[in-house]
Specification:
- By secondary structure, the protein is of the alpha+beta class.
- The protein folds into two domains: 119 residues, no CATH class; 93 residues, no CATH class.
- It is 51% helix and 17% strand.
- It has nine helices and seven strands; from the N terminus they run E-E-H-H-E-E-E-H-E-E-H-H-H-H-H-H.
- The strands form two sheets. It has a five-stranded mixed beta sheet, sandwiched between helices. A two-stranded antiparallel sheet has the order 3-4.
- The radius of gyration is 19 Å and the shape is elongated.
- The relative contact order is 0.11.
């Protein structure tokens, strides 16, 4: 079964490069990109859509047709919205997005426009943009309201604060009231058994946080 994907590199605030990948565009492609430490310069020559990337060797098999599509926006938020619009309408099920700060590839599954855009914003870390500054100001207020944990050492509190920051960043496009309810549940887990909660939450990536949040909200609605 062909799991089609776009591979994406947002190179600056106004420009994104996208190329079509035909086979194994989900977890397999994400692993192939990261395991072989494939650089965007290996992905984005002008000619040839990608048929597949070998998991073991990182070899890129290409078609003769197609090639890099360049998307240009007025500023970073507009560029990202244009990328997600292409994702929504391009007949693919996955985005594989390059994080230039971490030098890693990150997978986004097909979902709603707003959720996919939120996940893209989590991955793309471009400094000095209005989008980033506005979000950080809003999130700082959110953290101050939700970060209090009484009766623990400074080191334990720092670990807890990092968990809450990671959760908030991953869930920035979700309903704020539902996020607060979820965070209260996480707090309760820390109060019940701090070290078990650290083991459960500390190393979760964005996708795992979103999955845990969604499962929590579904269970709460069904109860």
């Amino acid at each position: 079964m062909a799991t089609r994907a776009y591979i994406v590199d947002i190179t600056d605030e106004n420009t994104a490069e996208i190329i079509y990948n035909h086979f194994d565009g989900g977890e397999y492609l994400n692993k192939a990109l990261n395991q072989n430490k494939i650089d965007p310069d290996d992905i984005f020559p002008v000619m040839g859509d990608i048929r597949s990337i070998d998991l073991e060797t990182g070899d890129i098999e290409r078609y003769k047709e197609g090639g890099t599509i360049t998307i240009r926006g007025n500023e970073i938020d507009d560029t990202m919205q244009r990328v997600i619009d292409k994702f929504q309408t391009g007949g693919v099920n996955y985005l594989q997005v390059y994080d230039r700060m971490d030098r890693s590839w990150n997978m986004i599954k097909k979902s709603t426009f707003d959720r996919a855009l939120g996940e893209l914003k989590n991955i793309v870390k471009i400094e000095n943009t209005d989008m980033k500054e506005n979000y950080e100001s809003k999130w700082k207020r959110f953290i101050n309201e939700n970060q209090q944990l009484d009766g623990f050492t400074d080191n334990e509190t720092d670990d807890f604060n990092e968990v809450i920051s990671n959760i908030g960043f991953a869930l920035q496009s979700e309903d704020e009231l539902e996020v607060k309810t979820y965070i209260n549940s996480v707090k309760n887990d820390f109060y019940r058994d701090f070290y078990a909660a650290i083991d459960e939450y500390y190393d979760l990536n964005d996708r795992e946080i979103i999955d845990d949040f969604e499962n929590y909200i579904i269970d709460k609605r069904d109860s």
